[in-house]
Amino acid sequence: MDIEAFFEEMPFADLLGIELTKVEDGHATGRLELREELSWNADRLMAHGGVTFTLADTVGGAALVSLVEKPVPTIDMRIDYLNAGQGDLSAEAEVVRLGGDVGTVDVAVYAEDGTHIADARGVYKTG
User: Fold this and answer.
1) How far apart are CA 57 and CA 11, in angstroms?
2) Nearest of 110, 108, 123, 23 to residue 65 by alpha carbon
3) Tens digits of per-residue pLDDT, 46-57?
4) Entry pTM
5) Model pLDDT, residue 27
6) DSSP per residue over 1-36, as a string?
7) Does 29 have pLDDT greater than 90?
8) How far apart (Å, rounded) are the C-alpha atoms in residues 51 and 85?
């Protein structure tokens, strides 16, 4: 399975402009260029929480897909917002558990200046 192509063909991730930058061995990284229409603040670019969440979910899913080589629907995702996301965003995901029915992935999201803006844990269906 061409993982990058699979995620590039995901209409919602494509709409947001999510780009996977590395996907291998239970690890994935990705980025998103923050545009005006993705901001919750009209005066300056600050990522809407849904944008941050979608980046974490997409990169987290990619990390798991790198191991199971098939689509992994999200069962549950929890996110803690730590700081406002200003500028382009990046995410780094690591699979922490791979079971026969579900997999668990931890994701950290960062703002352009390196500020840690969110931590997420996603649970995905693998079986």
Assistant:
1) 14
2) 23
3) 888 889 999 999
4) 0.92
5) 98
6) --HHHHHHT-HHHHHHTEEEEEEETTEEEEEE---G
7) yes
8) 10
